[in-house]
Design a protein that fits this description.
This protein has 149 residues and is α+β, with helices and mostly antiparallel strands. The chain has three helices and ten strands; from the N terminus they run ααββββαββββββ.
Amino acid sequence: MDRQEETKLRVARQFIEAIPHSRALGMQLDALSDGSAEISMPYDLRLVGDPRTGVIHGGAVSALMDTCCGAAVMSHPDAPAGTATIDLRIDYMRAASPGQRIRAHAACYHVTRTVAFVRATAFDDDKDHPVASATGAFTIERARKDDPA
């Protein structure tokens, strides 16, 4: 891993750890590469939206996907210094299976001067049947030339 990749990994971990809801949800950065990220969170009874079924609340899934998309943007080769969500559309396809870890994978597929575009998928142990998919637009904050990053 080269210095720039190490820096991006460190920044992405700090990004996730600095967000209170990411810590509260137990999010973990599992993978990061040029423009893609994978983040997961454990099943937690505190996050159950329907006690009858034990299904995790959709808000927790959306927070996971949003955070994963932001990490993908920050890992893009154009090296943005920061990002924020402009728009995120999430389509829920099924309930996540109770008791299973939820993973999100996001890929930043296009970057303009000021906006990054991302696609993401959330899944549990059944990778063939996603829990949700998302598309989003994120701001691009570029590092200043005089920043030592």
